[in-house]
Write a structure and sequence with these properties.
Layout lengths: L19 H14 L3 H10 L18
Helix pairs in contact: 1-2
Length: 64
C-alpha cells in the first residue's frame, strides 16, 4: 500500500501537441525565473524542454 502523500500517474502527456510558440514562451519564462544556468537546465529538463526551444526561428534570413 502506498503512503497517502505519494502521487501515482498512469498516463503521460507525450501525445499532446504543444505549439512551438507556447514552448518558446515557456522556455523564456523558465530562463527568467532561474537563478543560474544549472537551475535553468534542471527546470527545463523537468518540463521536457531544452533551451533551444526558446530561440525563435529567423524570419527572412536578412539582418538589420
Amino acid at each position: 500500500m502506498r503512503a497517502h502523500h505519494e502521487l501515482h500517474i498512469d498516463h503521460t502527456f507525450d501525445d499532446l501537441a504543444i505549439p512551438d510558440w507556447q514552448q518558446a514562451r515557456a522556455v523564456r519564462a523558465v530562463a527568467a525565473a532561474a537563478s543560474d544556468a544549472d537551475d535553468c537546465r534542471l527546470m527545463l529538463e523537468a518540463l521536457g524542454l531544452v533551451a533551444e526551444d526558446g530561440i525563435p526561428a529567423q524570419r527572412d534570413g536578412s539582418s538589420r
